[in-house]
Predict the 3D structure of the following.
Amino acid sequence: MADSHDVVIVGGGAVGSSIAYWLTRDAARSERIAVIERDPTYARASSALSASSIRQQFSTPLNIHLSRFGIDFLRQAGTLLSRDGEPPVELGLREPGYLFLASAAGEAILRDNHAIQRREGCAVDLLAPAALQARFPWIDTAGVALASHGTADEGWFDGPALMQALRRKAIAQGAVYRHDAVVGLDVAGGRVRGVRLASGTTLSCGQVVIAAGCWSASVAAMAGLGLPVEARRRTVFVFDCRATIAGMPLLIDTGGVWARPEGRYYIGGVSPPADQDPPDLPLEPNHAEWDDWVWPALAARVPEFAAVKVVNAWAGYYEYNTFDQNGIVGPHPDVANLVLATGFSGHGIQQSPAVGRAVAEWLSHGRYVSLDLAPFGVDRIAAGRPVIERNVV
Ligand SMILES: Cc1cc2nc3c(=O)[nH]c(=O)nc-3n(C[C@H](O)[C@H](O)[C@H](O)COP(=O)(O)OP(=O)(O)OC[C@H]3O[C@@H](n4cnc5c(N)ncnc54)[C@H](O)[C@@H]3O)c2cc1C
């Protein structure tokens, strides 16, 4: 063995870099932490292609707790992630909230979700159509039975900047990033004994973390393990609108089309219906989604959006957990020193600060300390015990 590490993290996106950041944060510790990242340009990484929004409006308390820590972390990022002698980290956090709209068919679910969110202390208002119109005069309320507006702790930020800041801070604290691809995991006696790299090196390791985003299933397969995580393409359209929609939150229409301001432009998109959402589509924008779904919905909901121009578009992959669309986090029961952090299905960048902290706790102490992520353990899949999240965007 040429090289030995206490922890080897496969994937240096926001999740892998957050784990590395938290692991190296305590200067008194002397673990050797390696992050293996095959593409330091992050050209296809979800963290570089994310819409990077953060909300409290989930239906699962644990998702709310993860994102609540996320917003606190983002607010403090300038202090936590800046490095001596470098310009302060600026993540461009904006907090205009999320606005979910429900048709009559979705009204009961929105009410149920709201009750959970209020129990968890979230600042979310339920708005009947007249109140919705009064608060947001630019909305056409046709077909809306009820809306929920998060008035605090929700918005958007610069996700790629968060990933880079976590990465740089982790390196400053002692993590080693290697530009290489993991091509094999040697498992014997129920443990990963070696991590094989494309360069020909084999790393010996105490523990291995799979944080390889939508490619995590292929890495788990190297250890002979199945993981229900697929690469599902999502297109984001950037559009220009002459009118300024003052104070616009992140709008999620009754059918799932979403839009929000982005600098002087707006961005928007939709998750395709399940029967038109196969894995591994080419990473190219699907412009038909704009014509068929996104623009018709937005033009009807926000009359000012009837006259807009698409100026750009990009596509990225959700690391989509086909079992229950929630993170798969924590140790694998069949391989003692293998830990997972993947499957976040569209809410991973906002959860990366809390997931990184939790996984680092697990690796350091063999248990969660600040937030118990056991419900997101991989064992729920074999047990057929999904964590149902009804607010997947
Ligand atoms: C269009 C879009 C919009 C989104 N919007 C939001 C949002 O509004 N809010 C939100 O919270 N989340 C959102 N997400 C989801 C979020 O971006 C992801 O959940 C998050 O970025 C996942 O981070 P990650 O580090 O797990 O994966 P990635 O950023 O993909 O990083 C994984 C890394 O692993 C590396 N890798 C893979 N295999 C190997 C290997 N064998 N060897 C070495 N390296 C390897 C890859 O090169 C990659 O850099 C969105 C995603 C997309 C695509």
